[in-house]
Amino acid sequence: MNQLQQHIRKQIETTGPISVADYMMQCLCHPKYGYYMGRDPFGREGDFITAPEISQTFGELLGLWAAITWQQMGSPSPFHLVELGPGRGTLMKDALRATKAVPGFQDAAHIHLVEISPVLKDVQQEALKSEQIHWHDSFTNVPDGPAIFIANEFFDALPIRQFEKGEKGWAERFIDLDPDTDGLRFVLRKDEAARALMPEGLKDKPEGGLFEVSPMGQAIAHGLGARITQQGGAVLALDYGYTEPGFGETLQALKNHAYAPVLKNCGEADLTAHVDFTTLARSFIEAGAKTWGPMNQGDFLERLGITQRFQALLPHANDEQRPDLIAAHKRLCSPDEMGTLFKVICATHPDHPAPAAFE
Q: I need a surface site. Which of 20, 81, 133, 192 has the fewest CB within 10 A?
């Protein structure tokens, strides 16, 4: 039993079972024992690999997308280019390299990274040491003004609540001590208030289903939508998820590139859940923003020219690099890899024209 699990056990013994959202928040963000607070989880030596680490073309294309969006906004100067959950800084580094040739873009851009991990902040500082970067622990601290927000695999790590429909109606899943072991277990607490968090089409479904919702994700999307509606700008979010709300558990733990038990090794594995893009879009819209998509990541990248970019790189690649380029393109775009599982959604100021790839 590690120190975080001991801490959670003491909390449950003192105040009773905790929600899944509370459990996720502690496992990921506890200031002393949280998963993201003391490690670099990315890459082959970590627990998972994200799109920017697969190929530099991913960040380059997102940078060019941001430059086109900036031009559609009327090329404001200054403006804020903000990344939420920037990992190692790889995406931003590639984006800035690709946009050097866009007249006025980098002169106008104030770069902001929203990061809570001290370890990752150090990695980002090294990766972007030639740039002037501003760090924040919340997007709400980004100064006023038009802004373009990029969120790649950000919303999936936000805490969720889980609700299960049994014989007596809806109940919320909580986490309690397992009386038969030293570990933890899921329990149910009756909660009629849960119905208010659910889409109308699911409230009267038959028993046996489990529904997930991320109030924090909705609140952040609403806040971002209000920001760009009032001050101008756009939000581009890429994540794995689904386009229609439905039953099913997606909460998962990842450790050493493999699935791990959710209720074990607290703080030592990444915890994520699939993003509900319909609810995400509704949060943007309720704040006054206009939404575009969601669409599959493979389609989005193809519309931005990823195949042409790889075709341009292949003639200059050696025998060792060529298979890696082909594999990277397949992983990012193929329907049986990230191409379909990952979705892309954009929110803009209501008067913004169709963003690149969403025409």
A: 192
**What does the pLDDT read at residue 262?**
95
Rg (CA), the chain: 21
CB burial string 77-87: b at 16+ within 10 A, e below: eebbbbbbbbb
pLDDT per position as a tens digit, 94-107: 999 999 999 999 99
Q: Is 16 within a domain?
A: no
**Tokens of residue 351, six digits:** 């008067």
Domain span at residue 47 reads: 35-159+213-346
Total domains in the fold of the chain: 1
Question: Exposure of 270 by Cβ count < 10 A (0-12 exposed, 13-18 middle, 19+ buried)?
Answer: buried
The C-alpha angle 343, 159, 294, rounded to 5 degrees, equals 15
Cα–Cα distance, 28 to 45 (Å, whole number): 19
CA proximity to 342, closest of 206, 241, 200, 194: 241
CATH number at residue 334: 3.40.50.150
Determine the residue type at 148.
Answer: I
Specify if 253 maps to a domain.
yes
By residue count, the chain amounts to 359
Residues 155-191: tens digit of each pLDDT: 999 999 998 887 777 888 999 999 988 899 999 887 6
Q: Is residue 197 part of a domain?
A: no
Sort residue 74 into left (φ over 0), alpha (ψ -120 to 50) or beta: left
Q: Give residue-wise pLDDT tens across range 259-312.
A: 999 999 899 999 999 999 999 999 999 999 999 999 999 999 999 999 999 999
Is residue 93 domain-resident? Answer: yes
What three-state secondary structure class fits 153? Answer: coil
CA-CA distance, 33 to 30, in Å (whole number)? 5
Contact between residue 65 and residue 236 where contact means Cβ atoms under 8 Å apart: yes
- Residue 145's identity, in one-letter code, is G
SS3 283: helix
Specify the pLDDT at position 334. Answer: 96
The one-letter amino acid code at 341 reads L
Q: ω before 86 within 30° of 0 (cis)?
A: no
Residue 290: name the closest of 210, 246, 331, 229 by CA. 229
Q: What is the pLDDT of residues 328-355, one digit of tens each?
A: 999 999 999 999 999 999 999 999 999 9
